[in-house]
Amino acid sequence: RKEVEQDPGPFNVPEGATVAFNCTYSNSASQSFFWYRQDCRKEPKLLMSVYSSGNEDGRFTAQLNRASQYISLLIRDSKLSDSATYLCVVYSYGNKLVFGAGTILRVKS
Amino acid sequence: DAGITQSPRHKVTETGTPVTLRCHQTENHRYMYWYRQDPGHGLRLIHYSYGVKDTDKGEVSDGYSVSRSKTEDFLLTLESATSSQTSVYFCAISESNGVPQYFGPGTRLTVT
Hints:
Structural class of chain A: mainly beta
Largest sheet of chain A: 6 strands, mixed
Shape of chain A: globular
Radius of gyration of chain B: 13 Å
Number of strands of chain A: 11
Helix content of chain A: under 10%
Largest interface: A-B, 19 and 20 residues
Oligomer: heterodimer
Distance between the termini of chain B: 33 Å
Helix content of chain B: under 10%
Structural class of chain B: mainly beta
Order of helices and strands of chain A: EEEEEEEEEEE
Number of helices of chain B: 0
Order of helices and strands of chain B: EEEEEEEEEEE
Low-confidence stretches of chain B: none
């Protein structure tokens, strides 16, 4: 079983839609969680950290469920520019960041 | 954007030749990392450095070596390139372990 698993998608949604991605992790001792965004043929860029109480940044909301060991990313009012691959990233103390393989989002007009 | 550059950005080389990739940062961050990214595998850590001359292996370190003689530079060397090392290589930096990392623009390496 992979340490971090994501549905690869692609998720094809119309502009203005709400879309959610989940990511599961296997190490219950994981301490820090992040979502990165990666555009085609570009480097990953930090989208947001994920806090235990959940957090929001504009149209993006991240949630953490430690009991079920998953994190989620909700995107509201999708824009064409949101089309990208979204990477779930997990850190466990003493280890390095572990990256999921990514979920592809395509927003269509 | 974090001040990270990678060179070269693209390289085509032949099997068996040595290759060195360079990562340069202007952020004075302590930690530097080398990853490779392949379809279906996500980003996998090759080697990382936690200070000048302090390096350690990642999950896919076989066939790779690294050196860090200055805070700002982290070199990745493929001693004898193989076709399985065709990949996109990303350098990343962070202030400490476990906090968000910031990535360079990547090097696209093709081994023929």
